[in-house]
Amino acid sequence: MGQVRVVFLWLILILLVFESPSCAQDTDNDSEAEVSEESEAAVESQPIGTLKINASYQAWDIGLNLTDLEACQKWSAFWEASAGGNSNKNVTAQDSSSKDAEDESESSAEQEPLNVEQETVTSVERMEEIGLDPELLKKYLNVVILYKEICHDYPRVVWFNTTAQAREIGLNATSPICAPFKEALNPDADKLVDLASILFNLAFESTNSTSAIEAELLLRIKRQMEEDNSEEVVIEAKSADSEKLVTVSNETSKVAVQIDSKDGASPTLMLGTLDAVAALGLKIDPSLFARHEKVGLYLPGVCGDVVPTAVNSFNASDFDGVDIEGNIGINVTALEASGVNLTELAEILRNDSQLDLILSRTADVNATRTLGGSFILPVLNKNKYDPFSPPIVFEGSAVGVRFGIYIESMSNFEASTMDYDMDIYLLMAWRDPRLVNPFDKPILIKEEEILEKIWRPDPFFANAKEAEFHEVTFLNFLMRIFPDGQVLYETRIKLKPACNLVLCKYPHDKQTCELLIKSFAYPIDTVRFEWFSDNKDAIDKNPDVKLPELYIDKYEPTVCNGTRKSGNFACLRAVFNLKRDIGFHVAQTYIPTSLALMFSWVGVWLPEEFMEGRIGVAITVLLTLSTESAGAREHLPSVSYLKAIDLWFGFITGFVFFTLLQTLFVIGFDKRASQLRKWATKKKTNVTQEARDAMIHKAERYHKVGRYLDNFCRVFFPLSFAMFLVMYFFVFTEGAQDDCLSR
C-alpha cells in the first residue's frame, strides 16, 4: 500500500511538471518540439476517461441545476416522505452528516429502487436534456452522476462556529489554530498571515502518516503548486475494474489550508484535505469531505474561550514620591474583584452582537424605569475608574462603538453656498466592563458633572461647516448604563454640512449628500466605529422632513477612509440621495418661456405689411427671456460647466433670435419686391417694356420667397420645438449626473 501511495505521488508530481510552461525550455531542437506539440494535441483531442460527479458543489461547478433535475425532484419527495422529512440538506455540523447517512440506510426498501441513484451519460441529447454542456463529452468518455449524493444539495462549505463544536472536533486551547488569540483579542492581519503560513507548513510537512520519501514528494508538490497555482490540474487514477476515473479541480479548491482575513473582525480558516485535518490534530468526520468541498472554522467562534493577554495595569511604584491624583489606566484586578469573568468577557467582545440590540432594550418597560445618575458613583470608585482611558481590557482589542442617527429636520438647502441645515439625534453604544454593576435597572445620567467622570468616544463631523449642541433648557443629552456594562449615549446636535452639488442636470438633478463621522484622536486600533446592523437603527428620519425643492429619496449607512497625516482613524458615512421636485420649475420656468417662444411665432402669421409688429414681438420675447434666465440662475453657484437649464434657455433664446432673423429676411424680400414694382411703374422713356416685365417678375419672385419662408416656418417652428422637447426631457436630462464634467 505504501508503494502504491509513493507511485501515486510521483504521478501527481510528473503531471504538474509536465503541464508547467517551463517544460518547453527543455526541448533539444525545433523539430522535436513540433513533434511533441503535435502528439500532445492529438492526446488532448481524445477523451481521457470518466468524469464522476458525486458531490453537490461539483454539480454546481459544471452547471447542473439541481432544483430542475427530475431525478432530484423524486429524491426530494422520497426523503420528505421518509422518516417524517428528516433529510437535512444544509449540513452545518459533524453530527448532521452522520444522521443523514442513518436516515438513508433506514429508508423504505420498496420505494428506493424507484429513484435513480446513478446515471452514466454518454449521449449529447441526454447532456442537453439535463442541462450539461455537450462539449464535456469531447473531453471525457462519459459523465457519471451520483444523484443520491448530489441531490442533497449540500453546501460547498460545512462550518464550525462555536466553542462547543470546537471541542467536539478536538480543538482546544493548545491548538496552534488559536495561538494568535492568546496574544490579542482580535489578531491583526499580519498575525493571521503568520498563522496561515504555520498551518500551511504543518499540513504539508507533517510526517505522522508518511514516509521520508512521501514527505519529500509532498514538499516538491507543494513547491510546484506555489509556482503555478493558477493552472487546472488533472489527476488520473485506476479503479479496481481498470476504468479510468478523472477528477478535475482548480488550485483554488485544492489549497489544504487557507485563512480569509478580508473582514478583519471575522477571519475564517478553510481546510481542503483530510491530510490537513490530520496534521492539525482535528477529529473531523471524513465523510464531510466527500460531500463538501471544504471545512470552515470561524476563528473568533471556535477560539472564543481562549483568554488573551490582559493589558498592563498602571504601576504606581514607578513613581515613588509623586502625588498621583485619581485612577490611571485599566485596573484588571479591580475588575475581577467586582465579578467580571475575563473568559466570558473575551468571548463576548470577540463578537459583541448583543450591542446591536441595545435600542430594543430601551423599549423594555423595566429599562425605562431607571436609577439616578448618582448610583454609578460607587461603581466608579470600586473599579478605580479612569475616565481618560478607553475600556480596553485585552491586548490587540479595540472599543467597538455602534452609531445611529435620527434626522429630526432638514432645511435651508442653499445651492449657492452648497450647504444645508440639519437637526439630528446622535446615538452611540459601546461596552465598558468597568461599568458592570449589581443593580437590576439601567442608570440614567443627565448631569454634566457625572458625565465628565465617564469615558466617551470622540466623534466629529468632518464635512460640517458649523456644529453645536442644543442647550435649551439644558444640555440635550442622556446616557443609560445597563447592568452588564453596555452604554447608550444620545445627544441632539445642529449641523450645517457641506454638500458638493453637481448641477449638470439641473433642475432635473439628483444629488448625493454625505455626513462624515470620524474619530478625532483615537486611532482605529483603539476605537472602531460601526453602524447599527439594522439600517433602521443606523439611519432614520422624521416622516415630516421635507425640503422646498429637494426631498430624501433614500439613505444608506456606509464606511469611509479616515486616514489623515496623523494616522488612520475610524470613519462612517451617511449617504443621502436627494431628488429635486420639478413642479416649481415647470410653473416658473418651462411654461412661461415656452409660451413666450410660441408668442414669437405670431410674426409668421402676420401680413408682410406689419413689419413693426413682427419685429416688436421678437424683441419683446428676447427681453422677456433675458429676465427669466437671470431669475432662474440667481440662486445657483457659478460653475464652469453647462447645466440643463442653460441648454434650455440657450435653445429658447436662439430660437427666438432665429425667428427675428426670419422676420428680417421676409421684410427684406418684401421691401425689395416693393422697390422693383415701384421702378417698373415709373414712366421713364429709357426703360423698355421687357425690362419692366422682368422687374415685375423679379418682384413677384421676392414676394413668393417671403411667403414661402413664412409658410415653411409655420410648420418648422412647432416641429423643431417638439423635437427639442423630446431630446431635452428624454436625452439631455437623463444619464449620469456628472456626465458634463467628464466631457
From TrEMBL:
<dbReference type="InterPro" id="IPR006202">
    <property type="entry name" value="Neur_chan_lig-bd"/>
</dbReference>
<dbReference type="GO" id="GO:0005230">
    <property type="term" value="F:extracellular ligand-gated monoatomic ion channel activity"/>
</dbReference>
<feature type="transmembrane region" description="Helical">
    <location>
        <begin position="647"/>
        <end position="669"/>
    </location>
</feature>
<keyword id="KW-1133">Transmembrane helix</keyword>
<keyword id="KW-0812">Transmembrane</keyword>
<dbReference type="GO" id="GO:0004888">
    <property type="term" value="F:transmembrane signaling receptor activity"/>
</dbReference>
<keyword id="KW-0406">Ion transport</keyword>
<feature type="domain" description="Neurotransmitter-gated ion-channel ligand-binding">
    <location>
        <begin position="383"/>
        <end position="555"/>
    </location>
</feature>
<dbReference type="InterPro" id="IPR038050">
    <property type="entry name" value="Neuro_actylchol_rec"/>
</dbReference>
<feature type="compositionally biased region" description="Acidic residues">
    <location>
        <begin position="27"/>
        <end position="41"/>
    </location>
</feature>
<keyword id="KW-0813">Transport</keyword>
<dbReference type="InterPro" id="IPR036734">
    <property type="entry name" value="Neur_chan_lig-bd_sf"/>
</dbReference>
<dbReference type="Pfam" id="PF02932">
    <property type="entry name" value="Neur_chan_memb"/>
</dbReference>
<feature type="domain" description="Neurotransmitter-gated ion-channel transmembrane">
    <location>
        <begin position="589"/>
        <end position="697"/>
    </location>
</feature>
<feature type="signal peptide">
    <location>
        <begin position="1"/>
        <end position="24"/>
    </location>
</feature>
<keyword id="KW-0472">Membrane</keyword>
<dbReference type="InterPro" id="IPR036719">
    <property type="entry name" value="Neuro-gated_channel_TM_sf"/>
</dbReference>
<keyword id="KW-0407">Ion channel</keyword>
<feature type="region of interest" description="Disordered">
    <location>
        <begin position="87"/>
        <end position="121"/>
    </location>
</feature>
<comment type="similarity">
    <text>Belongs to the ligand-gated ion channel (TC 1.A.9) family.</text>
</comment>
<keyword id="KW-1003">Cell membrane</keyword>
<protein>
    <submittedName>
        <fullName>Uncharacterized protein</fullName>
    </submittedName>
</protein>
<dbReference type="Pfam" id="PF02931">
    <property type="entry name" value="Neur_chan_LBD"/>
</dbReference>
<feature type="region of interest" description="Disordered">
    <location>
        <begin position="23"/>
        <end position="43"/>
    </location>
</feature>
<dbReference type="InterPro" id="IPR006028">
    <property type="entry name" value="GABAA/Glycine_rcpt"/>
</dbReference>
<dbReference type="InterPro" id="IPR006201">
    <property type="entry name" value="Neur_channel"/>
</dbReference>
<feature type="transmembrane region" description="Helical">
    <location>
        <begin position="711"/>
        <end position="731"/>
    </location>
</feature>
<dbReference type="InterPro" id="IPR018000">
    <property type="entry name" value="Neurotransmitter_ion_chnl_CS"/>
</dbReference>
<dbReference type="GO" id="GO:0005886">
    <property type="term" value="C:plasma membrane"/>
</dbReference>
<keyword id="KW-0732">Signal</keyword>
<dbReference type="InterPro" id="IPR006029">
    <property type="entry name" value="Neurotrans-gated_channel_TM"/>
</dbReference>
